[in-house]
């Protein structure tokens, strides 16, 4: 399998296994984690834009970055300075290619030795093809993690994490307003199934052309709209993906956000075409996702500190607990 760089931080199962021998003594579940200020967040995927935005948001919310992080397997090792323009907080981070197993293991042990065995928590933004193997790697190494990447085999992902007693927040979307919208639609679908019976569903979503998969948020919203419309025939393959700059502009995306946006339009049309309902959420830039990711890190750390780790949480859980700042 050929992986992409720089935003992909990829570990195969074989790579993960290579780490296991010297890490076998880790406890099955992290029972306690340091306070927010002591957590070292390993933001994997920098210097990719989403990972970098998440790192900046962590600094903005008072979290500390791990002195090292993983980058794409084909990248050269480098040191970068992450700066949050709002607060002026900054941190130096050494980026290590995911193919440099020995150095990654050495840095992980060094960081844990200095800051505490349970101080490291990962943020993972990578290519969809690496979702399952990366999650297994974190679980096997007892690294709590927040994963906002979509794609992969999601059913298998949840099964693997539940059976491994992993501590994680896994969600197709990290933006709290969109998460709240999804929760509202799920509740509506439960209360009023087939309220839009026989209505035809049409979905268009536009993202930057580097996004390889169909939006996980679109899939989640479609799940609710299918219940409301009673349409069992509509599939994720029917979602219209826009990954072309000119088409995105025609869809309403401004030039300056072509390389970072999420524009979604969901339409329900009555059988005779006389009634139409439309739901739309347009996001320009990455800030809303980055800040939600940092909130998820703080939520997960506090759950572990309370002895409530060893579970997979969603952003709905984060929102319900009022942990979105």
UniProtKB/TrEMBL annotation:
Residue ranges constituting the Dihydrodipicolinate reductase C-terminal domain according to the UniProt record: 185-319
PANTHER family reported in the protein's UniProt record: 4-HYDROXY-TETRAHYDRODIPICOLINATE REDUCTASE 1, CHLOROPLASTIC-RELATED, DIHYDRODIPICOLINATE REDUCTASE
Any Pfam family matching the protein: DapB_C
Keywords: Amino-acid biosynthesis, Diaminopimelate biosynthesis, Lysine biosynthesis, NAD, NADP, Oxidoreductase, Signal
N-terminal signal peptide: 1-18
Pathway membership: Amino-acid biosynthesis; L-lysine biosynthesis via DAP pathway; (S)-tetrahydrodipicolinate from L-aspartate: step 4/4
Single GO molecular function: 4-hydroxy-tetrahydrodipicolinate reductase
InterPro entries: DapB_C, DapB_N, DHDPR_bac, Dihydrodipicolinate_Rdtase_pln, NAD(P)-bd_dom_sf
Catalytically driven reaction(s): (S)-2,3,4,5-tetrahydrodipicolinate + NAD(+) + H2O = (2S,4S)-4-hydroxy-2,3,4,5-tetrahydrodipicolinate + NADH + H(+); (S)-2,3,4,5-tetrahydrodipicolinate + NADP(+) + H2O = (2S,4S)-4-hydroxy-2,3,4,5-tetrahydrodipicolinate + NADPH + H(+)
Source species of the chain: Chaetoceros tenuissimus
Top-tier EC class: oxidoreductase
GO annotation, biological process: diaminopimelate biosynthetic process; lysine biosynthetic process via diaminopimelate
EC number(s) reported in the record: 1.17.1.8
Homology family: Belongs to the DapB family.
GO cellular component: a single term: chloroplast stroma
Span of domain Dihydrodipicolinate reductase N-terminal: 39-174
Protein name: 4-hydroxy-tetrahydrodipicolinate reductase
